[in-house]
Structures are given as structure tokens and as C-alpha cells.
Automatic annotation (TrEMBL):
Species: Dekkera bruxellensis
Database matches in Pfam families: TIM (PF00121)
Gene name linked to the record: TPI1
NCBIfam families tied to this protein: tim (TIGR00419)
Protein name, as recorded: Triosephosphate isomerase
Family label: Belongs to the triosephosphate isomerase family.
């Protein structure tokens, strides 16, 4: 089964009503391919705005995080139910910035993945190693550790998209080479096949880390790179070119 090409835009903690509206209007005007799934992930306060302003049928909206309870006394947290209520279909979980700055453990991420899926959201699950781990030859071990925490709690991965995002490549301008990314993605798929069997062939594995219009073309012939999770470049007009990069 062919895997639908996927491009996510993680705006991180950036934007304003005006700048986010400009991004959505630019995409509304663009001639986007009908066979690419796009997910825009603005900060929480702008989710409803993006849902309302988006006119592209292939563009969906995702949150950058959510909590593992439906409601209750969890001041400051956001429930998957709120997201669904707003028309938000995806959530990014396990981003390295949350693991690093907010001390989110593998288990906590896995619990959130399980809960978000059970509430009907689709999950973009981020994994990836630090520069030190890469230098020590531990890339796939780290990916396996982060994936296995989820695999222990979630058996059906239909609604999970994996984003391999080497931490040393995020926001640094130093993207992984297409060949290196393909090698890691193939290892990830191989590992997934040991825990979820044949379904591993259907799971999309995105590359993230300084992906931009000028380098995504190099990943074109990589059979395990099923799209991109884009940070900085998703705030720029070139995001449309990244979406069109497999045409
Ligand atoms: C990200 O934050 O998910 C990301 C990939 O960032 P950037 O593209 O800016 O490296």
C-alpha cells in the first residue's frame, strides 16, 4: 500500500493573529497537490483561527501538545476533547523541545499518545537523538527506546505518524543528509515491524530537522522518507514549495 506523502508545519511558539492569517491565506491561494496530506500546528490560541481560515481540503490542523485527561483540575492543560471540539484532528507529541525543556519522559509521552488516540486524535510522534548520542553510535537505540515506550501501550499504529527528528538538526540549519535519514528511517521501520508486524509498512515516517525548500528535493528517491515535519520553514512562503516537493 502506498503511503500518502505528509508535510507537517510546526509553528512552535511563534506567530500572531496577523502573521498566522498570512500563512493560511498564502496556502489557500497555492495550487497544492491533492495527494499530499498537510497538517498545520500553530500555538493553541490560534488553532480555531486556522481551522476557520483554512480553505484547502488537504490541509488539516494539529496541536503541538495535549494532556492525558479529558477534563478536570489540571490548570493550564489542554484536553484532546477541546482539540476535537475545535476541529483539530492531529496532535504532535514527544517533540524533543518538550522532552528536553519540560522533562517529558518516554512513559509520559507514551501515556499521552495512548490517551490522544483513544479520544480520536491522530498523533505525530517525534523521536530522535542528541548530537552526543549520534556520535556514540546510539541513534537507533534512542529511537527504539522512544518507540518501544509507545509500542508497549499502543498496539494499533494506524493513526500514528512517526517523525524522526535528530535533535542536532532541529533549528540549526544542519539537516541530516538524505542518505543518513533514509538509513535511520529504514532501521525504524525494521524495528517497528518487530513490534507491530506488517502494519509497520503502513506507518509514515517523516524527517524533521532544518528541512527547507532548498534541501527537501534531495530526499525524493528515499523510499522510507514519507514526508517532513517542518519547523522554521513552515512560517515562510517556501512551505508551499515543500508541500509540492514530491510532484
Ligand atoms: C521541529 O521543530 O519540529 C523542526 C523540525 O524544526 P526546524 O525545521 O526549524 O529544524
Amino acid at each position: 500500500m502506498a503511503r500518502t506523502f505528509f508535510v507537517g508545519g510546526n509553528f512552535k511558539m511563534n506567530g500572531s493573529k496577523e502573521s498566522i492569517s498570512t500563512i493560511v491565506q498564502n496556502l489557500n491561494k497555492a495550487d497544492l497537490p491533492s495527494n499530499v496530506e498537510v497538517v498545520l500546528c500553530p500555538p493553541y490560541p490560534y488553532l480555531a483561527q486556522v481551522v476557520a481560515e483554512n480553505k484547502q481540503p488537504t490541509v488539516k490542523v494539529g496541536a503541538q501538545n495535549c494532556y492525558l485527561k479529558a477534563s478536570g483540575a489540571y490548570t493550564g492543560e489542554v484536553s484532546p476533547e477541546f482539540l476535537k471540539d475545535l476541529g483539530v484532528g492531529y496532535v504532535v507529541l514527544g517533540h524533543s523541545e518538550r522532552r528536553q525543556y519540560f522533562k517529558e519522559s518516554d512513559e509520559f509521552v507514551a501515556d499521552k499518545v495512548k490517551f490522544a488516540l483513544s479520544e480520536g486524535l491522530k498523533v505525530i510522534l517525534c523521536i530522535g537523538e542528541t548530537f552526543e548520542e549520534k556520535k556514540a553510535g546510539k541513534t537507533i537505540d534512542v529511537c527504539k527506546r522512544e518507540l518501544s515506550a509507545v509500542a508497549e501501550k499502543v498496539k494499533d499504529w494506524t493513526n500514528i505518524v512517526v517523525a524522526y527528528e535528530p535533535i542536532w538538526a532541529i533549528g540549526t540549519g544542519l539537516a541530516a543528509t538524505a542518505a543518513d535519514a533514509e538509513e535511520v528511517h529504514a532501521d525504524i521501520r525494521k524495528y517497528l515491524s518487530t513490534v507491530i508486524g506488517a502494519q509497520a509498512e503502513e506507518v509514515r515516517i517523516l524527517y524533521g530537522g532544518s528541512a527547507k525548500a532548498s534541501n527537501v528535493g534531495g530526499f525524493r528517491d528515499k523510499k522510507n522518507v514519507d514526508g517532513f515535519l517542518v519547523g522554521g520553514a513552515s512560517l515562510k512562503p517556501e512551505f508551499a514549495d515543500i508541500i509540492k516537493s514530491r510532484q
